[in-house]
Amino acid sequence: MSDETTTEAAVRENPRKIREGVVVSTGMDKTAVIESVDRVRHRRYAKTVQRSTKLFAHDENNDANVGDLVRIQETRPLSKKKRWRLVEIIERAR
């Protein structure tokens, strides 16, 4: 019976997405805007294309500054646009 419960838990488990990006704006209180760049291959031309998206992340202590390289994690909706939270600052801007 314990085997069934462990397999059910493994099926339900959905790890939250983690992204890395550069902070482009910190004008809002407890919010940072992060630009995340994804590299994907073009379906037709098989060339690598960069796609960037702006993600709004919760920054509880207003630690992040513009230009910082940060890691963010998916979370429950915190506001209309915020669905991410700041996990760590990987590298400070120079």
Describe this structure in words.
The chain is mostly beta strands and 94 residues long. It has one domain: Nucleic acid-binding proteins (OB fold (Dihydrolipoamide Acetyltransferase, E2P)). Helices cover 12% and strands 49% of the residues. It has 1 helix and 5 strands; from the N terminus they run H-E-E-E-E-E. The chain has one helix at residues 2-12, and strands spanning 18-25, 31-41, 48-58, 69-74, 82-91. Strands 1-2-3-5-4 form a 5-stranded mixed β-barrel. The radius of gyration is 17 Å and the shape is globular.
Secondary structure topology:
Elements: H1 2-12, E1 18-25, E2 31-41, E3 48-58, E4 69-74, E5 82-91
Parallel strand pairs: 3-5
Antiparallel strand pairs: 1-2, 1-4, 2-3, 4-5
What's the total count of β strands?
A: 5
**What share of residues is helical?**
10-25%
What is the 3D form?
globular
Sheet with most strands: strand arrangement: 1-2-3-5-4
- Sheet with most strands: 5 strands, mixed, barrel
Given as residue ranges, the uncertain stretches (5+ residues, pLDDT < 50) are none
Distance between the termini: 56 Å
* Overall tally of domains: 1
Cα-based radius of gyration, to the nearest Å? 17 Å
Percent of sequence in beta strands:
over 45%
CATH architecture: Beta Barrel
The CATH topology turns out to be OB fold (Dihydrolipoamide Acetyltransferase, E2P)
Tell me the series of helices and strands, N- to C-terminal: HEEEEE
CATH superfamily caption: Nucleic acid-binding proteins
Number of helices: 1
If you average the pLDDT, what whole number results? 91
Highest CATH level, the class = Mainly Beta
